[in-house]
Amino acid sequence: MFVRVTPIILTFEPSMAQIFEDESLPSVLAEIAGSLETLGTDYALLSSALERSVIYKATPTGFGDAMRAAHSAGAISADFMSTVERHEPALCAMIRHEEDRRLNFRALCALRFSCLLHDAERLLERPQHMLLRAALYMHADNLEEVEATYLLMATQKMFPSYGILTGSGTSKPVLTSCYALRMETANVLPSIEKAVRLVRDGADVGIGVQSLACRGSVVDGTVQAGVPLAISALEAMLQALGTSMNRPSGAISVFVEPWHTDIEGLLKLIRKRSKVFRDGPRLEFGFLINDLFLHRVHADQPWTLVCPSRAPQLESLHGSAFEAEYTRVETGGHGSRQIGARKLWNNILDTIIATGGPFILYKDAIYGTIAFPRIYLMKIDRFFQARGNCGATVSDSTSFDGKEHILAAYLQALGAGSMLTLILPSFVTAEGAMDFQELSRVTRKAVDALNGVVDRTSRPLPPDGVFEGKPTAIRVGTNGFADLMVALGHSYDSSVARELNVAIAELVQYIALDQSCALLKTRGPISAPLNPNSETSTRLVQDHIWSLRELSNRYDWGALRARVTTEGLRNCDVTVYDSDPMTSIITGCSESSEPFRSLIAVLNGPSGLFVNIPRRFMGALERSNLWDDEVRDRIVEHRGSIQTMAKVPSSVRSAYRTVWDIEQSTIIRFALERAPFLCRAQDRVNDLC
Question: In this protein, which residues make up the domain named Ribonucleotide reductase large subunit C-terminal (predicted)?
Fold first, then answer.
């Protein structure tokens, strides 16, 4: 390996004396080499090797020794330590520290800063200790399953979520609690206080604010402050209450609809917030868009903004019922003012481009998919609480009993349930083919492991008036589809990619459902049984849902459908399409089934800002003797794309097309075609329209 060390020497030479005095040379060298990774892959190898040496120097080699140190520091529980001591020789023999070579510098930094156990500043474990700790938490005394699961994670065939990595064996929560609440004009302050306390304790909270009266309106003799000021008060309270030292803070997602009078003020607030760095819990925004608004956008027609105090039914309606009520309010002169629908839509898109938010949800599409036949709703202390057999999610639907209901779609966070991600590039054979048999085997292992997490994790009861996400849900997801296409030698928008997109989604859901059904017989229900006749079981085999599936001949869906109908499922959800940035950083893969966003981008990770380049991309150009400073700078000039660079081989240009180089219709078609094989709605992180 040849490395140009001159830039390294010149960079740290001014502080040489201090470096040697505090014995931090390896750490400084690793950071410097990491900052020079854009010069070539040699620097990536050097920086990761140096960072490993820093971690290894600070931690014990043996798993038992590391866990004893963690137990002495109060980082793991006494029960978990007892399990370690019972099986210490066997567990120590499982460890494969050589697998850490799969982790690049940024992955190691992310683990060191966020996932590995610490005692204040002191590091207590290595990456392989962390993975074995997670596997042991999943399977306890079943050492055969512990080892099998650990090896799959160590070799990056599947990888656990952040909550599993940080919480396994500790007193921290492994499952992220997800709560939903509704902010009304009469309960703004109690809602803010409740949300902030939940987030401080690590929960994710969804807040619906579209029933909040607009700025300047008069309700019960009081002039209202409106949505933007309520959000500002919420954010101020988040900062004032601080963060917990024992667990990471959660996030708040605020949802509103485009007919609300304060919609433009909220967009202005979102743009203003993006210019100020804020530490602490995340505050995100989502807009629930109805079809009527989109029709007005297409026709460039006026759009009437309405205060919810004058049209209280709008938030609870969708489809033709919403259109009828909105038209009645509009023609009856109950609106606040009018704006061009296209002007408002462009304002939303400009805000998304500038800030990355708000997220867009399509109200009628969400509730046009009847996955839950009935969701019963009860009014509790001025809150509406959605209740089904197992809760409701973004992909749940809208055949509601009762005249009043709150749309659970935007009040239900997607984070409920533990998650394991299948790393797709790891399933390419030496012959360059997709190994579906191995993917099937690992999917079963993932379902087993996640059910182990659910079985061993207690969940606190939600506060009064707050709707919690489904406790029996698990999430099997995928990462690295774009990297998979590179490894197979096909472009993202090729016919092969289109076929694999559906084939992978079909395999994962079939195997996950099959295994969940089998586990119900061998392990029994998690808490409340999902009986064969329950809505939770039958919703997965609804005729109108299954009719959307273009089934292959690989699996006996008819037999599975019969089993699920007669026997039931252990989990109310099993598959998910969800971006997991932490897993992408650690494994060095593209997010979920997304195309590459950019071939050179500056990202913000747990250890700070870093330059992200797809793992195989730089090596591909180096093999053609094309990677140098000029090429790198030209890619930056072209906003992360190489499509106009003629000297780059056409095969490389085809393989590394970014989201901006691909027709948006292709990306949307991919999403539509895999949708029938997912239990939840898809998080489309790259779509702007």
Answer: 177-366, 422-682
Do 555 and 661 share a domain, yes or no? Answer: yes
Is the domain of 128 the same as that of 277? no
Residue 619 lies in a domain: yes
669: Cβ contacts below 8 Å, ≥ 6 apart:
498
Alpha carbon distance 79, 93 (integer Å): 21
Q: Tell me the pLDDT band of 331, cut-offs 50, 70 and 90.
A: very high
Q: Count of domains in the chain? A: 3
CA angle 467, 469, 471 (to 5 degrees): 125
Angle, CA 251 vertex, CA 675 and CA 394 arms, to 5°: 25
Query: Rounded to the nearest 5°, which phi and psi values hold at 577?
Result: -115, 105
Q: What is the largest CA-CA distance in the chain?
A: 78
Any domain includes 147: yes
Least confident span in 15-29, 201-215, 229-243, 270-284: 15-29
d(Cα 659, Cα 590) in Å, to the nearest integer?
12
Domain of residue 184: give its range. 178-411
Answer yes or no: are the C-beta atoms of 317 and 325 closer than 8 Å.
Answer: yes
* 465 within domain boundaries: no
For residue 536, being part of any structural domain is answered with: yes
Q: Could you tell me how far CA 81 lies from the centroid of its own chain?
A: 31
The partner residues of 221 in beta bridges, in order of sequence, read: none
Number of residues in the chain: 689
Q: Nearest-5° angle of CA 668, CA 674, CA 675?
A: 85
Q: What are phi and psi of 648, to 5 degrees?
A: -80, 130
Give the pairing of strands 474-479 and 418-423: parallel
Please check whether residue 38 is in contact with residue 621, taking contact to mean a CB–CB distance below 8 angstroms. no
pTM: 0.80
Nearest to 599 by CA among 542, 660, 522, 509: 660
Plot region of 50 (φ>0 → left; ψ -120 to 50 → alpha; else → beta): alpha
User: How far apart are the C-alpha atoms of 548 and 557, rounded to whole Å?
Assistant: 13
* Under 8 Å between Cβ of 475 and 419: yes
Residues 371 and 337 both lie in one domain: yes
- Residues 326 and 315: their CA atoms lie apart, in Å, by 10
